[in-house]
Write a structure and sequence with these properties.
Number of strands: 27
Distance between the termini: 29 Å
Oligomer: single chain
Low-confidence stretches: 425-439
Bound molecules: ligand EPZ
Structural class: alpha+beta
Helix content: 25-40%
Largest sheet: 4 strands, mixed
Length: about 450
């Protein structure tokens, strides 16, 4: 594996963004659909799949299990005919939280599975108790070891699963385990995020019998086998919101060519509250950030369809450019204000206490060296840098690449002065020098 010894994004701010942007396929829809492909002993296709680090990581894990994968342009082909291994090493699962849902898929396919614990990350502890509860409810014997977790069953049995709290991943876990279980399952207290609906759409295309997705109660009638999946991955609602925040931070005006209609309503409500304007026009979303300037007295992140936690950091970057006091409460993850310290280095005044952050914004952020520590906070640094005076150098960009396929190229194409440098990349015995400059 290569190690990026120099991995920087250089941004010169101060110019409003203008122009049209197309949004990549959704990371959080693609990953569970990739896991679901394990439930068919043949070829499945994910069309318009984002080429991002997390998708490559999931692809590697599926190949570890015996799958064969290949790309045709933006379409990812997964042949799981012989993907019958049932162990995933910790160094693979530790990299990515969503690997844990493969347990339900392995149980559905082979009646057993084992893996290292999934990666936690800086935004919170990321427990998996609800995942384990779902699998045990469906008849799996689950052993929680020191280093790894394993599960087995003769055949999963349909059951009633009542989640005590909403969890996207645990809902996906329950669905993946129930579609090949014997008999009927009723999953209550489910997450209602669009990614759940897309996963069910993909599985129904494979022959699964599912109803109620998008509500809190999902009914599944187990079937004996599933055929190959084939679905176009929807535009990423979080990337869409991130780009709208870029327009707001620079007081620019952009058109999103392929917005995920109906999936960004809570965000647009807030966008209007801070002074942004937008209109839908023949399937495109035109957003005018020139009037952005009203601080936000209070906002809390919520489960869908509330304001998404994944847009909390990009919004904080916008609020840092608005003089006056704004207040955000982060209800989903216990430690998702890592961005605050870096914004303060750029001249904002953000104070954090537990799940609350108060942002005293300024119209004179100044560029400096900052560091990304996780995916959405890293993307938010690019937005703040685009609004700041002078040059900002962002390190830790590998976090950003986990979820954004072309954020630098996309924002440069609408006027952002962004230079993405991956410098010397040291591989074992091979040293290559590559430098992509984007202006
Ligand atoms: C998914 O994570 C997304 N990741 C996250 O996006 C997103 O922030 C999150 O849902 C909430 O919308 C993917 O889809 C790959 P949860 P997930 O289970 O499934 C607690 C991004 O930036 N919980 O809905 O891990 C948990 O600690 C990422 O793209 C338990 O207590 O989120 C959290 O407080 C970040 N026990 C809350 O539930 C469990 O067993 C919601 O987590 C599971 C979760």
């Amino acid at each position: 594996m290569g190690v990026n010894v120099l991995d920087e994004i250089r941004v010169t701010g101060g110019r409003p963004l203008r122009g049209n942007i197309s949004v990549q396929g959704s990371k959080n829809a693609a990953l569970p659909m990739m896991a679901a492909s394990l439930l068919h002993r043949g070829i499945s296709v994910l069309r318009d799949c984002p080429k991002i680090a997390d998708v490559y990581c999931m692809e590697e894990i599926l190949k570890e299990l015996g799958a064969v994968s290949w790309w045709k342009g933006k379409d990812l082909y997964l042949d799981c005919s012989r993907a019958d291994k049932t162990e995933i090493p910790g160094e693979k699962t530790g990299k990515m939280r969503s690997s844990v849902i493969l347990l339900g898929a392995m149980l559905g396919r082979n009646g057993k599975g084992a893996m290292g614990y999934p990666g936690g990350c800086v935004i919170g502890k990321r427990p998996i108790d609800l995942h384990i509860y779902a699998l045990r409810s469906l008849g799996a014997a689950v052993r929680e070891g020191e280093e790894d977790i394993s599960a087995s069953c003769v055949r999963l049995k349909g059951a009633k699963v009542c989640f005590p709290k909403s969890s996207v991943g645990a809902t996906e876990q329950g669905i993946l385990a129930a579609v090949l279980a014997e008999g009927e399952s009723m999953l209550m207290g489910c997450a209602r995020e669009p990614e759940i609906i897309w996963l069910c759409r993909y599985l129904k295309g494979m022959g699964a019998e599912i109803s109620g997705e998008g509500s809190g109660c999902i009914r599944i009638r187990g079937v004996r086998e599933l055929k190959g999946g084939d679905l176009e991955i929807p535009a990423d609602r979080i990337v869409t919101g991130t780009y709208l925040c870029a327009a707001a931070a620079t007081r620019g005006k952009i058109t999103i060519n392929n917005p995920p209609a109906g999936e960004v309503d809570a965000f647009l409500k807030v966008y209007r509250k801070i002074g942004g304007q937008y209109e839908w026009n023949s399937g495109k979303l035109i957003a005018d950030g020139s009037g952005v300037g009203c601080p936000l007295p209070y906002l809390e992140t919520e489960i869908y369809p509330g304001f998404p936690t994944d847009l909390q950091s990009p919004l904080m970057a916008v609020l840092a450019t608005i003089p006056g006091k704004s207040h955000i409460r982060e209800n989903i993850f216990e430690d998702r204000f890592k961005l605050a310290g870096e914004l303060n280095r750029m001249g904002a005044r953000v104070t954090v206490s537990g799940r609350d952050a108060w942002i005293q914004g300024t119209d004179s952020l100044t560029g400096c060296r900052v560091e990304a520590e996780e995916l959405r906070g890293g993307a938010a640094l690019i937005l703040a840098a685009l609004a700041a005076e002078g040059e900002t150098v962002i390190s830790g960009c590998s976090y950003i690449r986990r979820g954004y396929e072309h954020i630098c190229r996309d924002l440069a194409a609408v006027g952002g002065r962004i230079e993405e440098k991956t410098g010397k990349v040291l591989y074992e015995n091979i040293q290559i020098q590559e430098k992509n400059n984007i202006n």
